[in-house]
Amino acid sequence: MAAVDAQSRAARAWALAARQHGVIARFQLLALGFTDAAIKHRVATGRLHPVYAGVYAVGRAQLTREGNWMAAVLTCAPSGVLSHQSAAALWRICPEGHGPIHVSVKAGTGHRQPGIVTHRRSSLPDRDMTRRRNIPVTTPVLTLIDLATCVPEGPLEEAINEADKLGIIDPPSLRSALGARKGQAGTRPLRAILDRATFVLTDSELERRFVPIAARAGLPRPETQRRVNGFRVDFLWADLGLVVETDGLRYHRTAEQQLKDRVRDQAHTAAGLTQLRFTHWQVRHDPKHVERTLRATAHRLAA
Hints:
Layout: H1 2-19, E1 23-25, H2 26-31, H3 36-44, E2 48-52, E3 55-58, H4 65-75, E4 81-82, H5 84-90, E5 101-106, E6 116-121, E7 129-132, E8 135-138, H6 140-147, H7 153-165, H8 171-178, H9 187-197, H10 203-216, E9 223-224, E10 227-228, E11 231-232, E12 235-237, E13 242-247, H11 255-270, E14 274-279, H12 280-285, H13 287-302
Helix pairs in contact: 5-6, 8-9, 10-13
């Protein structure tokens, strides 16, 4: 009896979550005590409107986008969760557009519905599923991994940035979570973006790599770690009035750190200096871009 009561409470909670978005499924109605005849009567009288097989809009046929997401998940119950671009849209880290709704299910389930792309997974553990606005959805980590399999690098990096900005997951935590998912589709492009964005050189290696780039750009050897306008700068060409700063961890800087960066930049600009910023990754992996930028800036300043 206790087990039956628990199932009834779970069914009611699940139904209430669905009703929040104006939809309900046949299996939920049956669990709540409705008969087939009662369900058919409500459909005939316009109180229930079929959306997908076994899923109905309640009261009116029109649904919000969230209502459509919930309806798609319900028709793929019990294992269905919103995923891929649709999950990213629910998390508000990436626009979904007007394409089909993406739902992930456990392998072996045969849900096929017009307007729904079903992704069958060999496993869908609890750690990869959660709820947002009461809609079953993949976690932010799995959502970003899935997104990496179907969108280009630019939108993927924007999604990572947006997730960080919204406080959903920060890049260091995401990078750590990828460690347990080696070989999983989507992890490689994510790692490439995160490694590039958080790449850090030691001070000695940074200087060892940067100084030859500056030389190839036609600049003399810079002064390093000088104090200028009250701030320690990475590289200085006093004769040209040029300061170069290099950034390591680009992601997840605190508001206080960002403010200090702005104050330093403003102090150099107010003193008439030209300042350039390069990331450590650019110095290590894109030296040609650094060289071209230095050469063009030095030429302008010398003129």
